[in-house]
Design goal:
Elements (H helix, E strand, L loop, with lengths): L2 H9 L8 H5 L14 H4 L6 H13 L7 H9 L5 H5 L6 H13 L6 H9 L3 H9 L14 E2 L4 H5 L1 H10 L14 H5 L3 H14 L4 E3 L2 H11 L4 E3 H5 L2 H5 L36 E4 L3 H7 L3 H10 L1 E2 L15 H4 L1 H18 L3 E4 L2 H13 L7 E4 H7 L7
Parallel strand pairs: 1-2, 2-3, 4-5, 4-6, 6-7
The structure holds iron/sulfur cluster (2 copies).
One iron/sulfur cluster binds next to helix 4 and helix 6.
Length: 395
């Protein structure tokens, strides 16, 4: 127990771990409980948003110590999906509370080798650039006055075709190679100030409007730099200029193998082949932070409906279990969430699942591969699908 916690317990004062206005906003109504993936799988109050906020209050008031096992377990079991935030009538900023909670509990401790390794890898501009060097990433290109495309850290290494597709969709996007990581992983894993500093640094490296192809990064960047500086790709493409310029509206997605970037799932059968009248059935998995943090969920669906038969997957707004580092740190819990998601994808009978976040991309691509019934389902980023359909912003 820290000195601050001792003193808070003794005097009835607050320890100052959480901004008071954030913690006091919760009215304990419980509206958030049914939307919480960990609560609906355990039916334990402590594994609900309201229960976790009670634990935070106990920590703040010194009635429970930081090394209390329930406090430690629940700070980690929470997916950080912020589904509770979007249904809360009191406007509680749960995501921010969670960042402060983990910063207090995890900073300099409770973090295993895997997490420390991940944060180290994306913690410097040079190492992030190395991630991109192993694969061909987007061109610097674009007009001098164009918006700046954020390349991301893991997306740069794992799915560089996504940034290339974004530039194909909007050639005015500039993609300077000399850019670092936005710091979202740090902010969500016990290094809040470092994560915010990295976002500010990236804001200086990419002046003006920053366009991202990652829902998680866009929400973190917008929190630090302001909503007006950051646009997620689907939001960017569906503004008044982009919406008017859609040469491929209503056309089937071209699904020929040669039109894809590397590293994606096998083709989805003959349904969307060139010349075929049958449209692909396209589902969509929301990015939690994009939907719950920035309120962007209509835009990607609108775009997908233009290039195929859009199918709403049941529970698409719920977390897929990737949740940043969660799938690495809590693989069993992550797989439990993923399994329900795969059931829903199977029931929707889709040919393709579109994603807008690299974590969801990897989680669902691995997931469909693991289930024989889904072997023909392809997972791809929205940008890749739009390029294949011949969609272009301003073209
Ligand atoms: S977080 Fe919001 S919805 Fe949940 S209990 Fe508190 S006030 Fe109610
Ligand atoms: S962030 Fe997600 S998992 Fe965590 S309390 Fe809120 S709804 Fe539950």
């Amino acid at each position: 127990v820290s000195a601050a916690e001792h003193s808070a317990a003794a005097s009835g004062e607050r320890a100052g771990i959480f901004p008071a206005e954030l913690l006091d906003a919760c009215i304990s109504c419980g509206f958030c409980l049914p939307s919480c993936p960990t609560y609906v799988r355990t039916w334990q109050e402590t594994s609900s948003p309201r229960g976790r906020i009670s634990l935070m209050r106990a920590l703040e008031e010194g009635t429970l110590p930081a090394d209390d096992p329930t406090i430690g377990e629940e700070s980690s079991f929470c997916l950080g999906c912020r589904a509770c935030e979007s249904v809360c009538p009191a406007g509680v900023h749960y995501g921010e509370l969670l960042e402060h909670w983990r910063d207090h509990l995890w900073h300099g401790r409770r973090r295993g080798v895997k997490l420390r390794g991940l944060l180290w890898l994306v913690g410097s501009k040079a190492r992030v650039r190395m991630l991109g060097l192993v694969r061909r990433h987007a061109k610097g290109g674009g007009e001098a006055e164009g918006a700046q495309l954020m390349l991301g850290c893991f997306e740069r290494g794992l799915y560089p075709q996504v940034s290339r597709a974004a530039q194909t969709l909007d050639p005015s996007l500039r993609a300077p190679a000399d850019q670092g990581c936005c710091g979202a992983l740090h902010a969500h894993n016990g290094e809040l100030e470092r994560g915010r500093a990295m976002a500010r640094e990236l804001g200086e490296q990419l002046p003006g409007t920053i366009v991202t192809t990652s829902g998680g990064c866009s929400a973190h960047l917008a929190e630090v730099l302001g909503r007006d500086r950051v646009r997620e790709l689907s939001d960017w493409l569906t503004d008044s200029r982009g919406a008017a310029a859609d040469p491929g509206a209503g056309e089937p997605v071209r699904a020929a193998r040669g039109e894809r970037g590397p590293g994606v799932n096998p083709p989805v059968g003959s349904g969307g082949a060139p010349g075929s009248a049958k449209k692909l059935r396209i589902g969509y998995q929301d990015s939690c932070h994009l939907r719950n943090g920035l309120g962007v969920h209509r835009q990607p669906r609108e775009l997908l409906a233009r290039i195929g038969e859009f199918v709403e997957i049941k529970g698409a707004s719920e977390c897929c279990g990737a949740a940043g580092t969660y799938s690495t740190l809590r693989p069993k819990d992550s797989k439990r969430v993923l399994s329900d998601k795969l059931d829903a994808i199977e029931a929707a009978r889709v040919d393709v699942v579109a994603v807008v976040n690299p974590g969801c991309y990897r989680q669902l691509a691995d997931g469909v591969k693991s289930r024989a019934e889904l072997k023909d389902v392809r997972v791809a980023h929205l940008a890749e699908l739009l390029v294949e359909a011949g969609w272009s912003r301003g073209g």
